[in-house]
Design a protein that fits this description.
about 1200 residues; alpha/beta; nine-stranded mixed beta sheet; 34 helices; 49 strands; about 20% strand; elongated; HAD-like_sf; Glyco_trans_20; Trehalose-phosphate synthase; Trehalose_PPase; trehalose-phosphatase activity
Length: about 1200
C-alpha cells in the first residue's frame, strides 16, 4: 500500500482532511477472476439495518416501504456510481442479514502480465480523517474476488437456497464456502456477486457441520458444502492500516517504504496483526467473564456454547448450574424493575387511637403477590402517588408513610392537591378518559355524557383545558424526576396507563442530560381502550401523547382493536409506518428505532381467590344471597356507575325480558351493584338518576323481588362480597359500551370452577374481555332484542353446555396470572431492545417525518471484545461524527480553491415542523425560500473569487430562481441536476443547459400522462407535477393509506407501459416520479468538480457538500469518486453530453492528467440528520446548515444561532 507524499508543511486543522490510499496484493487467481478491496469504511455486514456508505441499499430500503422491488438486477444497477463502503443489512430477529442486503461497494485492483501476481489499485480508496492530532486513525479493509458472469454452477447459491437459509429458525442456514450471498459494485462495473473472501484463520472450517479443511490455497467457492453460515461470513478477518493523522500518511514498516504488499490469504501478513490482537483479547476476556459468572452462580462453564462463547441462558440472560471450586456462589445482583403507576397498589391507613400508619398491598394487578416468580428473578420497586385515610396534612406524616412504604419497596410521590385535582379529575377523567373510550369531543362539549339538554351541568370545561394540560405535564415531569433519580443502567421501567403517557419521553430527556444516553429499558402499557384516529386527532395534545408513548421500547395493549387504533393514529397523525416483524410482532419506526407494539392479556391471581374463598364471610354472604332470593335464578352484575358501563342498557334488556318472557318473572332476579368512585361526579350523578328511574319502573311493573339494586362508594367492590355474589349467581352479565380489561368475568368463572355448578358469562362485544373468553356469550348492548334472547339462552342453558363453555376458558383463567403476563411482556421488551441495539447504529430521525435526532446507541467496553461484526459496527459509528463547524471554518480559511454544493429543500430551505397531514410533512417548506441570513451568506460566499457555489434541487426552475436567482455568481441546478445554469456575473442573464440523457421525453409523456390522469381522477388530492426531466404523481394530500395503495398499483402499470424507454421510478414517500434512468444529482456534481479542476489547474483543495435525503446520496458518492479519479482524469467515465438552450451540443472541457492533487485536500460531505448515509459527517438539522454557512461567510454566528421559527439550536452546535 502507498499514499501520496504530503506537502512540506501540513496546515491545520486535520479533521476533514482527505487521505488517498493505494493497495497492492499478491494473489494467484483463477483465469477470469479479479481482485477487489473494500472501500472507505469497512461496515460490518449484518451489524446494522442500513450502511451509512451504501447509497444503493439506502435507496432500496426507502423505496421498499411503499413499493416492491420488481427487478433485482435493475435495482442494483442504480448504484453504478457507488464507490465506497460495505453494505449494512435489514436484520431479522436473529440479527442475521437478508440476501438482498448482503451488499458491498469496492475498488478494483488491476495487474499486467509483467506484474502478475501483484495486483494494485489504479485509483485510491478515499479516507476522510476524523481523529484529532497526535492520534492514529485505523482503516479496516478486506480483499475479495469476483468472477463476472459466474453462475450458480461455480458454487454460488440460488435465490431459493438463500431464502431457505434465511428462514432457518436458528439463523445458521448452511451456505457454500465464501458464501456467494454478497454482491459488490463500483463505478462503471455494475453489480456482481462476491465469489471468494480471504480466510487465513480457517473461520469456515470452524462453522457447524464442516469437516473440510481449508488451507491458504483453498479459499475459493467450490461445489462442496462446507457448512458456512451467514454469521461466519460477517465475522471473517479484516486487515488494518494505521494512518498518522498529523501527517496524513499510513504508518508502514521500515522496509515497506511507501508501499506495503499484502499476500492473499496469508495469516502472517502484518495487516492482520490488529485483528489477531483483538481476537486474542476477545478470547481472554470471554474466558474471564465466563469464569466470573460461573463463580457467581449465573451458570457453569459447562453451560457455555464453546462455538461462540455465549452462555446457555434464560430469557433474562441468567441461568443456573454447578459452581466451580466447591465455593458457595454469590448470587448476582438481579435486574431491577420499576413498576410506575399513578396510584400505588397499596392501602395506607392511620390508627385513630395510636396515630400510627399501616400499609398493605391492594387487590391491584400491579400489586406485589406472595410467591411471585418474577420477583425471585427480578428486584421489583413501585413508584406512584398514594391515597391515605385520613389524608396526610403534615411533613411528619409524609416521612412516616415514606418509611413504611420503603419497607415494601415503594416510593410514594406526594403531589400538590391543586395539581393533583387538575391532573387526575381534570385532564385524565374529563379529557383523556372519554376520548380514549371513543367519545367525540363535540358530544362531550355539548353534554359531557351527562345531560339530555344543553342547560344541564357538564363535566366538560373547555376554558380549563390549558390549566389541566399544564397540570398533566407537571405531574409527568414530577414522576420523571423521581424515577430517573432511582434508576441505574440496564434497569427496566414499566409505566402503567394513560395518566403517565408523557413519562417515557420526559424520562429520556433527563437520561440524555444526565447520562448522555438512554439507560433504562421502558415499557408503556395502556389498560384502557385506544380510540380511532379520528377521535384522537381532536385532542390538541394528541401528538404529544402519541410521541410520549412511542419513546418507550414496547407499547402494550390488552386487545388487538386497541393496538390497531394506536397504529392507525401513529400513521395518520405522525406519518409513521408500521411493519410486521419476525415472531408475529409489530414494529413502528420512530426516531430511528423500532418500537414494538404488543398485545398481552392477564387473568386473576388464583391463589389469592382460593384463599379468599376459604373466608367465613364469603360463605356467609353466599348463604345470605341464597336465602334472600330463594327459589330464583340470580343474574349478577357489578359496574362503575357511569354511562360507559352500559348499566341502563342492561336494565332495559332485563325489563324487556320480563315483559316478553313472562315465565321468568317469578323465577329470576337481577342483583346489580353500582360503584361510585366520585371521579366523574356529573356523569355519575346523571347515571344514578337514570338508573333510579329504570329500577323504579321495573319494580312497579313486576314487583320488588325481581331486582336487587345497591350503590356502593369507591371504585372496587370488596373481594369477600364479590366472591359471595359470584358463587350465588347462575349468570354474570356485563354490557359496557366501551371498556378496557375487566377481570371480574374471569374471577366469576374461576369462582365457579369444578366441582361447583358452572355459571354463564354474558359479555359485551365492546369489552376487551370479550376477545379473551371463548366460552362467553357475546352481545351488542345497543341491540336490546339480541341481549334479551341471549339472557334467555343463558337462563335456559343445559348443564352440559355450561360445563363445555367453562372448559374453554378455565385453563386461561387459572394459568395466566400476572407473573406469566410480566414474563411475556419482558420477553417482548428483550426483542425490542435487541432489535433497536442493532438498528440504531445506522438509524436517524431522518427515517421518520418527526424532527429531531436520537443519539445513536453507545457501545460499551464489553462489546469492544465481542464479535468482529460488533467491533466493526462500533468503529463505523465512530467514523461518522457530528460536524464541528469551527473545524469547518478553520479548513475553509486555509484553503484557496473551494467548491460548495448545497441541496435546496430540507437543507437551506427549512422544512416545516411535522403536522397531522402527509402533505405538510413531505413537501412543506418555509415559503420555498431560505432564511434571509442564509441568502446573505450565499451572496457573500459567491463574491469570493476563490469559491464556486452551486445549489442543486429536485424542484422546478421557477421556484429555485424565485428564491435564489438574483444572487450573482451562484450556480443553480434544477430537476435533480438535469437542467443547470453556470454561475453568472451581476447583471448577466442566466443561461440554462441540460444533460442529454438519451430519452425522448415528449414520447414518455404521451404514454405516461393518460395513465396518471386515470389515477388522479380516482385519488382525491393527488395531482401530476411536470418538470423538464421528470413526471411526478403526488399523493401527499390524499388519504395516506389510499394514496399508498394507488401509488403501488401506478408503479406496476407504468413499469409495463414504459418498458421501452430508458427510465426509472423514484418512489419516495408521498410522490412517484418517472425520471431518466441515468439521471441523478451526482451527474451535475461530478461535472462541476471536473470543470472547476480544468478551469483552475492549481487544483481544488476544499469541497463542501450538504444534503438531506436519498437523492443527495449520489452527490456524496460523486465527491468521493472525483477525488479518487484526480490525477487519472483521462481514464474517467465522461459525463453525458450537454445541450445549450438552442439545442446545440455544448463543447465539453477537455480532461487531462495534469490537474494538481492538492495536499492537504479537505472534503466535507455532510448529511442533514444522523442516518444511514454515504456522507462522512452529519449535522442534526437544517438549522445547523444555516449556522455553518453564516459562519463561513461572516466569520461568526449570531448568539443562539440563526433564528428560524424561534427554534433553539442543538446543544452541541458550537462544540
Amino acid at each position: 500500500m502507498e499514499t501520496e507524499s504530503p506537502s512540506p508543511t501540513a496546515a491545520p486543522p486535520l479533521n476533514g482532511r482527505v487521505v488517498r490510499l493505494y493497495f497492492k496484493c499478491r494473489a494467484e487467481l483463477p483465469i477470469g477472476s479479479y481482485l477487489r478491496v473494500t472501500g472507505c469504511t469497512l461496515w460490518a455486514p449484518g451489524s446494522s439495518s442500513q450502511d451509512p456508505t451504501d447509497a444503493h441499499q439506502i435507496a432500496k430500503e426507502e423505496a421498499s416501504q411503499g413499493f416492491p422491488v420488481r427487478d433485482p438486477d435493475e435495482e442494483a444497477a442504480v448504484d453504478s456510481n457507488a464507490l465506497e463502503g460495505v453494505g449494512g443489512f435489514d436484520e431479522e430477529a436473529t440479527g442475521m442479514p437478508t440476501t438482498s442486503s448482503m451488499y458491498t461497494s469496492s475498488v478494483e485492483l488491476v495487474t499486467t502480465p509483467e506484474e502478475y501476481p501483484i495486483w494494485r489499485t489504479r485509483r485510491p480508496v478515499v479516507v476522510v480523517l476524523h481523529k484529532q492530532a497526535k492520534q492514529i486513525q485505523h482503516h479496516y479493509y478486506r480483499y475479495l474476488v469476483v468472477t463476472p458472469g459466474a453462475t450458480t454452477e461455480t458454487g454460488a447459491l440460488t435465490m431459493a437456497e438463500l431464502a431457505a437459509a434465511e428462514e432457518d429458525d436458528d439463523g445458521d442456514g448452511i451456505m457454500d464456502a465464501g458464501g456467494a450471498i454478497v454482491s459488490t459494485s463500483e463505478e462503471n462495473m455494475g453489480s456482481t456477486r462476491v465469489m471468494m473472501w480471504e480466510d487465513p484463520f480457517q473461520s469456515l472450517q470452524k462453522s457447524k457441520g464442516s469437516g473440510v479443511s481449508l488451507d491458504t490455497t483453498k479459499s475459493f467457492i467450490t461445489n462442496d458444502k462446507l457448512g458456512v453460515t451467514k454469521n461466519t461470513i460477517i465475522n471473517l478477518p479484516y486487515r488494518t492500516v494505521d494512518i498518522d493523522v498529523s501527517t496524513g500518511t499510513p504508518i508502514l514498516e521500515e522496509d515497506a517504504r511507501d508501499v506495503r504488499v499484502d499476500t492473499w490469504n496469508n495469516r502472517d501478513d502484518i495487516s492482520f496483526r490488529p485483528y489477531l490482537i483483538r481476537d486474542a483479547m476477545n478470547v481472554e476476556n470471554r474466558k474471564k467473564t465466563l469464569h466470573r459468572r460461573a463463580a457467581s452462580g449465573q451458570y457453569s462453564v459447562t453451560d457455555v456454547n464453546m462455538d461462540d462463547g455465549t452462555p446457555s441462558a434464560g430469557m433474562d440472560g441468567s441461568g443456573s448450574g454447578p459452581t466451580s471450586g466447591g465455593t458457595t456462589p454469590v448470587p448476582p445482583a438481579p435486574t431491577r424493575i420499576f413498576f410506575v403507576c399513578f396510584h400505588l397498589p397499596v392501602v395506607v391507613v392511620q390508627n385513630q387511637d395510636t396515630k400510627e400508619w399501616r400499609a398493605s398491598w391492594s387487590e391491584s394487578l400491579m400489586a406485589k403477590t406472595e410467591g411471585s416468580k418474577v420477583l425471585s428473578t427480578y428486584q421489583g420497586h413501585w413508584v406512584g402517588t398514594v391515597t391515605t385515610h385520613p389524608p396526610i396534612t403534615s411533613e411528619e406524616d409524609k416521612a412516616k408513610v415514606r418509611a413504611i412504604l420503603a419497607q415494601m419497596d415503594c416510593t410514594p410521590i406526594f403531589l400538590d392537591p391543586a395539581v393533583r385535582q387538575a391532573h387526575y379529575y381534570g385532564f385524565c377523567k374529563q379529557v383523556l378518559w372519554p376520548a380514549m373510550h371513543n367519545i367525540d369531543l363535540l358530544d362531550l362539549s355539548a353534554s359531557g355524557l351527562v345531560g339530555l339538554s344543553s342547560h344541564e351541568a357538564s363535566d366538560w370545561d373547555q376554558s380549563r383545558l390549558d390549566e389541566w394540560w399544564t397540570a398533566y405535564q407537571d405531574v409527568n415531569s414530577n414522576f420523571a424526576n423521581v424515577v430517573t433519580s432511582l434508576i441505574k443502567p440496564s434497569d427496566i421501567v414499566w409505566i402503567h396507563d394513560y395518566h403517565l403517557s408523557l413519562l417515557p419521553m420526559m424520562m429520556q430527556a433527563i437520561e440524555l442530560s444526565k447520562f448522555n444516553r438512554t439507560v433504562a429499558r421502558k415499557v408503556f402499557f395502556l389498560h384502557i381502550p385506544f380510540p380511532t384516529s379520528q377521535i384522537f386527532r381532536e385532542l390538541e395534545c394528541g401528538e404529544a401523547i402519541l410521541e410520549g408513548m412511542l419513546h418507550a421500547d414496547v407499547v402494550g395493549f390488552h386487545a388487538f382493536d386497541h393496538a390497531r387504533h394506536f397504529l392507525n393514529a401513529a400513521k395518520r397523525i405522525l406519518g409513521l409506518n408500521y411493519e410486521s416483524l419476525v415472531g408475529g410482532l409489530i414494529g413502528v419506526n420512530f426516531h430511528g428505532k423500532t418500537v414494538l407494539v404488543t398485545m398481552s392479556n392477564v387473568s386473576i391471581e388464583p391463589k389469592q381467590v382460593d384463599a379468599a374463598l376459604m373466608l367465613p364471610s364469603v360463605q356467609a354472604g353466599y348463604s345470605e344471597l341464597q336465602q334472600k332470593h330463594k327459589g330464583r335464578i340470580l343474574i349478577c352484575g357489578v359496574d362503575i356507575g357511569q354511562q360507559l358501563s352500559g348499566i341502563s342498557l342492561k336494565l332495559l334488556a332485563f325489563e324487556r325480558l320480563l315483559q316478553d318472557y313472562p315465565n321468568w318473572q317469578s323465577r329470576v332476579v337481577m342483583v346489580q351493584r353500582v360503584l361510585l368512585p366520585n371521579s366523574r361526579k356529573a356523569d355519575e350523578a346523571f347515571t344514578v338518576r337514570e338508573l333510579h328511574a329504570v329500577v323504579k319502573r321495573i319494580q312497579d311493573k313486576f314487583g320488588q323481588s325481581v331486582i336487587d339494586y345497591q350503590e356502593c362508594s369507591g371504585s372496587s367492590y370488596p373481594m369477600g362480597q364479590r366472591l359471595a355474589l359470584w358463587k350465588a349467581s347462575d349468570v354474570f352479565i356485563s354490557t359496557p359500551v366501551r371498556e378496557g380489561l375487566n377481570h371480574w368475568p374471569m374471577e366469576y368463572i374461576y369462582t365457579n370452577k369444578e366441582p361447583d355448578v358452572p355459571g354463564v358469562v354474558i359479555a359485551s362485544e365492546f369489552s376487551a374481555v370479550c376477545s379473551i373468553l371463548n366460552g362467553a356469550l357475546r352481545v351488542n348492548p345497543y341491540d336490546i332484542q339480541m341481549t334479551i334472547t341471549t339472557i334467555d339462552k343463558a337462563l335456559s342453558m343445559e348443564l352440559q353446555e355450561r360445563a363445555g363453555r367453562r372448559y374453554r376458558d378455565i385453563d386461561f383463567v387459572s394459568k395466566s396470572q400476572s407473573d406469566k403476563w410480566v414474563y411475556n411482556v419482558l420477553r417482548d421488551l428483550k426483542d425490542a431492545v435487541s432489535r433497536s441495539s442493532t438498528s440504531s447504529e445506522g438509524a436517524s430521525s431522518g427515517a421518520t417525518p418527526i424532527g429531531g435526532t436520537t443519539p445513536m446507541r453507545r457501545i460499551g467496553k464489553s462489546e469492544l471484545v465481542d464479535t468482529t461484526a460488533g467491533f466493526l459496527a462500533r468503529e463505523s459509528i465512530i467514523a461518522f461524527p457530528h460536524l464541528k463547524i469551527q473545524n469547518l471554518k478553520a479548513s475553509y480559511d486555509v484553503t484557496t480553491r473551494r467548491v460548495i454544493v448545497l441541496d435546496f429543500n430540507g437543507t437551506i430551505v427549512l422544512k416545516e415542523p411535522p403536522g397531522k397531514y402527509l402533505k405538510r410533512e413531505i413537501l412543506g417548506t418555509s415559503g420555498n425560500k431560505p432564511p434571509p441570513q442564509v441568502v446573505d451568506a450565499l451572496a457573500c460566499l459567491c463574491q469570493d473569487p476563490r469559491n464556486t457555489v452551486f445549489v442543486v434541487s429536485g424542484d422546478s426552475s421557477e421556484n429555485v430562481i424565485n428564491a435564489l436567482g438574483h444572487i450573482p455568481r451562484l450556480g443553480l441546478a434544477v430537476s435533480n441536476g438535469a437542467k443547470f445554469s453556470p454561475p453568472a456575473q451581476f447583471g448577466e442573464p442566466r443561461h440554462w443547459k441540460t444533460f442529454d440523457l438519451g430519452v425522448d421525453w415528449d414520447a414518455v409523456k404521451r404514454v405516461a400522462l393518460p395513465v396518471l390522469s386515470k389515477y388522479t381522477a380516482r385519488s382525491n388530492g393527488s395531482f401530476v407535477k411536470l418538470t423538464s426531466f421528470s413526471i411526478g404523481w403526488s399523493y401527499y394530500s390524499c388519504d395516506p393509506e389510499w394514496g399508498s395503495l394507488q401509488a403501488s398499483h401506478l408503479v406496476l402499470e407504468l413499469e409495463s407501459e414504459l418498458r421501452a424507454f430508458d427510465v426509472r421510478f423514484v418512489t419516495l414517500k408521498g410522490i412517484v416520479e418517472v425520471v431518466p434512468r441515468k439521471l441523478n444529482k451526482g451527474l451535475i456534481v461530478k461535472k462541476l468538480l471536473r470543470d472547476t479542476g480544468v478551469q483552475h489547474p492549481e487544483g481544488i483543495d476544499f469541497i463542501l457538500c450538504f444534503g438531506d435525503d436519498i437523492s443527495d446520496e449520489k452527490m456524496f458518492t460523486s465527491v468521493f469518486s472525483y477525488i479518487a479519479e484526480m490525477g487519472d482524469e483521462k481514464n474517467a467515465k465522461p459525463s453525458p453530453p450537454v445541450l445549450n438552450e438552442d439545442g446545440s451540443v455544448d463543447t465539453p472541457m477537455e480532461l487531462s492528467n495534469e490537474c494538481v492533487v492538492r495536499n492537504p485536500l479537505y472534503s466535507y460531505t455532510v448529511a442533514v440528520g444522523r442516518k444511514a448515509s454515504h456522507a462522512s459527517t452529519y449535522v442534526n438539522d437544517a438549522q445547523e446548515v444555516a449556522n455553518a454557512l453564516v459562519l463561513l461567510a461572516k466569520g461568526e454566528v449570531p448568539s443562539g444561532g440563526v433564528a428560524v421559527w424561534g427554534a433553539a439550536n442543538s446543544p452541541d452546535l458550537f462544540t
